[in-house]
Design goal:
By secondary structure, this protein is an alpha/beta fold. It has 12 helices and 8 strands. The protein has one domain: 3-Layer(aba) Sandwich (Rossmann fold), CATH 3.40.50. α1 crosses α12 and α2 packs across α3.
Length: 293
Amino acid sequence: MNGISISTAAGVFDAVAAGPPDGRPVLLLHGFPQTGLAWRRQIAALAAEGHRVVAPDQRGYSPGVRPERAEDYRIGVLVADVLAITEELGWPTFDLVGHDWGGAVAWWTAVGHPDRVRTLTVVSTPHPGALAEALRSDDDQRARSQYMKDWRDAPATENRMLADDARLLRSLYGDKIPRASADAYVRHLTRSGAMTAALNWYRSGRPDGEIGVVEVPTLYVWSTGDTAFGPGPARETARWVDGPYRFEILPDLGHWIPEEAPETLNRLLLDHLRTHDGRNQRAPLTVDDSGRL
């Protein structure tokens, strides 16, 4: 695994990469408040299977792409970043994986550009259409999502997040993320302008249009202990996928699945990619109620 720079018209994205240059390409999109290194365990597993894996620090997290205006973090711009990054990498098609905000970007990218996205894997984040419906009718999900409105308050949110050695920011990780990883994310987000840029994802406003259904093969992984996304939109996501769909529920895990249960996620992800490799259309593995494959 090594660091690379990806130059686009928007600026230079930092990224970590691994695997043979001619391997099947996989792009991994992180969420808030992390970086591409949140995927370190998935990067290693994918590269070991011969995939070419790239995990960029997304807009605002990469110092070379850190505009100040909240409107420069609209979902359409974030999707354009995905397309620009993969074009610079020379990937006409690719497998796309996202978690948290990276999951939202992944959903929108797969819906809008099914010719580019070979398969989709989303961790934690329900389809945006299912989430929007839940925010209108599901009291549980509205309560879970209240923080999204609260964090639009600037600069008060930044001040609260970073006060007292970033105590509030650190509390978001709880005890689910290794201390060394949490320390690395905090160091990254305490650099000049980084926290505001990350919070601008929440402040950018509504999408420009309605999102449709997904047609590409999709794996959605959700955990019962996720505090941000409840069971309503997670289960309703199935109605927003027309292509091959697999929904896996991991019991007793929190929001940070890539780092909480890396081996389980790796097996699910690799099986999804093998199932939809264009040659081997076998039945996928399943996870039982205990979370074991």
